[in-house]
Amino acid sequence: MILCDTGPLVALVDQDDPHHDRCVAALHTLPAEPLLTTWPCLTEAMYLLWRAGGLPAQDELWGYLAEGLVVLHAPAAAEWERMRAVIIPQTTG
Fold first, then answer.
1. How far apart are CA 11 and CA 14, in angstroms?
2. Domain boundaries in the chain?
3. pLDDT (tens digit, 9 = 90+) per residue, 54-91?
4. C-alpha span between 91 and 93 (Å, rounded)
5. What is the dihedral of CA 60, 43, 15, 13, to 10 degrees?
6. Most buried one in 1, 2, 6, 63, CB count within 10 A?
7. Per-residue pLDDT tens over the stretch 17-54
8. Do residues 62 and 50 make contact, with C-beta atoms less than 8 angstroms apart?
9. Residues 6 or more apart from 52 whose CB is under 8 A from it?
10. How far out from the chain centre does Cα 9 lie?
11. Dihedral of CA 74/66/69/44: which sign?
């Protein structure tokens, strides 16, 4: 599993991004498996790509999803409960 945050998603698409070349090179060295990201990262990337290149840039990221290069992780119910337990520790009283 390869986790991918907003920055690399944007850099892969936006050729003017200062990290574009490095992210593309890194992608070619990774195992042949999808990049896993979340809805918040995808949403932020789409916003930044709109500013960087408009619809064509956003469409390229949509293409990564359609091709399976990027996949979205949707947390299961048990994961939500675990996140809650980690973020809001239960106090004993």
1. 5
2. 2-87
3. 999 999 999 999 999 999 998 888 888 888 889 987 76
4. 6
5. -30
6. 6
7. 999 999 999 999 999 999 999 999 999 999 999 999 99
8. no
9. 10, 13, 14, 16, 17
10. 6
11. negative
Q: What is the pTM of this model?
A: 0.83
CA atoms of 21 and 57, how far apart (whole Å) = 16
Domain 2-87 annotated CATH 3.40.50.620: no
Q: Please tell me the predicted confidence (pLDDT) of residue 12.
A: 98
Q: What pLDDT was estimated at residue 76?
A: 86
